Amino acid sequence: MTPHVTELPCMKQFRLVDGCLALGGRPVTELAREAGGTPFYAYDRGMLDARLAELRGCLPRAVHLHYAVKANPMPAVVEYMAERVDGLDVASAAELELALNTGTSPGDISFAGPGKRDGELAAALQAGIVINLESFGEMERVHRLAEAAGQPARVAVRVNPDFELKSSGMRMGGGARPFGVDAEQVPELLQRIGDYGLSFQGFQIFAGSQNLRTEALTAAQDGIFELAYRLAEQAPGPVKLLNVGGGLGIPYFPNDRPLDLNVVTDHLAGHVETCARRLGDARVVLELGRYLVGEAGVYVARVIDRKISRGRVYLVTDGGMHHHLAASGNLGQVIRKNYPVAVATRMTEAETGKASIVGPLCTPLDILAEQVDVPAAEPGDLIAVFQSGAYGLSASPVGFLGQPMAAELLV
Ligand SMILES: *Cc1c(COP(=O)(O)O)cnc(C)c1O
User: Fold this and answer.
1) CA 211 to ligand 1 center in whole angstroms
2) Which percentage of the chain shows pLDDT scores above 90?
């Protein structure tokens, strides 16, 4: 393996077959044929299992583990995860339909998102899932739609906390946000939920995503449980559900260290005990996307051309930002850094020099990796981008420049 691959501890999970990167014991060259060509994404069931086992091994038994579908909505992945987690979180009517099709019980599906349309709310009411209310206006619409349809509305309140998750890759709480209801406005919202007779389920408090710092994550847990206890005093009924979000990160870049999971889950265990005393049978839900699926996926593209421009080597591939916006550095990164990449068809060959790996689009933004050490790759070789199981294809501008869609395989 090339050094830039072995540096990342997660890469130990991958195997080689005749020097070629393999998933599920099958070399990516074979997977490319099954996918009908390149580029494609492949997700490894064994790695999903390993991550779930690791989590279950250290999470308190009472904690329910939910999968946030938006991290990877490939139907086969959603089905696979649904059979192994305790619930699903969705963020659109399309994701809701996916979730319902897995047979997950409606009470174990929750629907978040700041701009739910009436049609989506009606579908959620019809299905009987838990709607995470994000504003007063949304609550009014849910009330109206529930009355019109003669259906009960199961609602939880998504709270925009009055603290921030520090050093999070993507902050989603604290300060002014489009997400959730500001903590200080929640008591008034709870009052109205009671007045309208909506079926109050509890709270969702989600502070941020992609965090690798245990101190920040445990501090966020402290804030979340404290806030929940405070708000519970004003609730129109018992808190049945406390969704504490997730935020667990995975390492992408050379200086990232994998999360020390036990520290986070041990700390959570302490809170869960206190919570059982303070909120009775409130079910604590941990809602994870990236941490569950992110490391189990690779994106594979084929080298179309190798060229040299003023001394720099470019490997031009058939895949790029249109399928993998995050790896191109254009999905929220401030400073572009390379995702871990490798020449998948030459994993055991020594590096011969640096190259930039770019996509086929006519834009300088279409970069998969800049100036990385690679073996002597030629047209026809396959490039793998690791850590690509979450926020990959569905988070990319697939229509850009009329490029063909990428296939997805669960292997
Ligand atoms: C996106 C999202 C998640 C999942 O976040 P990850 O960082 O992928 O674990 C969980 N809950 C809510 C409300 C979200 O919007």
Assistant:
1) 12
2) 89
